[in-house]
Amino acid sequence: MNKKRLAAIEKEVSRVVSKCLFEEIKNPKLKKAMVSVTNVRVTEDLKFADLYFSIMPIAGGTVNKNEVLEGLNEIKGFLRKRVSEELALRYTPDIRIKLDDTIEHAIKISQLLDSLKG
Q1: What are the pLDDT tens digits along the chain (118 aa)?
Q2: Predicted local distance difference test score (pLDDT) of residue 118
Q3: What are the boundaries of each domain within the chain?
Q4: In terms of Cα–Cα distance, which of 73, 69, 76 is closest to 101?
Q5: pLDDT for 94
Q6: What is the dihedral of CA 68, 70, 71, 76, to 10 degrees?
Q7: Which of 88, 63, 62 is closest to 5 using CA atoms?
Q8: Which fold has domain 3-117?
Q9: pTM for the predicted model, two decimal places
Q10: Neighbour-count burial for 34-43, b at 16+ CB within 10 Å, e otherwise
Q11: Total Cβ atoms within 10 A of residue 9
Q12: Phi, psi at 86, each rounded to 5°
């Protein structure tokens, strides 16, 4: 498949899933943290879409990431249905949930560097 078309599909899947997370999802496991889509990778045959999520605590609290990932896995069928409704694709990819901890890692490195300065 054309790389540009694949990138456009990934962008649209990200948009649809982000919109669903903020407007439609009522799962209490997901309301305990700030959950956002950081990346989407769709296979060339459109069989799978890997959705990478960042999970951050709300207002400096703590969050159980496993519980949030469990909540995301519970709604992946709904997310797939919404993607199929919004996008005109012959095949709607199966959604696989992945954790993206790059933001947390960057914050940790920044804190370490700040501690070395002071």
Answers
A1: 789 999 999 999 999 999 999 999 988 888 888 999 999 999 999 999 999 999 988 877 788 899 999 999 999 999 999 999 999 888 899 999 999 988 778 888 988 888 888 6
A2: 66
A3: 3-117
A4: 69
A5: 96
A6: 130
A7: 88
A8: GMP Synthetase; Chain A, domain 3 (3.30.300)
A9: 0.86
A10: ebbbeebebe
A11: 19
A12: -85, -30
Check: CB of residue 53 under 8 Å from CB of residue 70.
Answer: no
The Cα 107–Cα 101 span in angstroms is 10
CB neighbourhood size of 50 (10 A): 16
Neighbours of 16 (CB within 10 A): 19
* HSE-up (13 A, CA, CB side) for residue 103: 14
Look up tokens 């962008």; give the residue. 11
Pairwise CA distance, residues 24 & 21, whole Å = 6
- The predicted pLDDT at position 29 comes to 87
**H-state helical runs in 24-101:** 65-74, 76-86
